[in-house]
Known about the structure:
mainly beta; ten-stranded antiparallel sheet; 2 helices
Amino acid sequence: xxxxxxxxxxxxxxxxxxxxxxxxxxxxxxxxxxxxxxxxxxxxxxxxxxxxxxxxxxxxxxxxxxxxxxxxxxxxxxxxxxxxxxxxxxxxxxxxxxxxxxxxxxxxxxxxxxxxxxxxxxxxxxxxxxxxxxxxxxxxxxxxxxxxxxxxxxxxxxxxxxxxx
Length: 165
């Protein structure tokens, strides 16, 4: 009985240390560089509560200053004032990407990798949890952002990018 008790205590103390937290690596983002991605951004318009789709392009370039960073250049041909650049950085341990905690990294077969992350923030002037799903393939890329407001039980889809090259 003492051995069983000792094993239970040891597993409760050391068990979390032996669980593997998902990680991303530089190869995951390096796959995004090269030819420009073309597709759409579909977002929930909070004023009308309807989904709206607009053309979108994405160019990803590895940073020359930081080997853990990539510059994402978003272009919207029909709304050029919305064009933007964002620097996305992977933490050295691979557990955080662009300030988002990695909660899943899996292979979906073929050449597609699924990465799921979460991050706290503000949306529509409300505190919320953001849930991001990245599907990265050789010729397709999607990024879905879901939002769950504090006190709510369900996520709503805020936006989704779908690109091909």
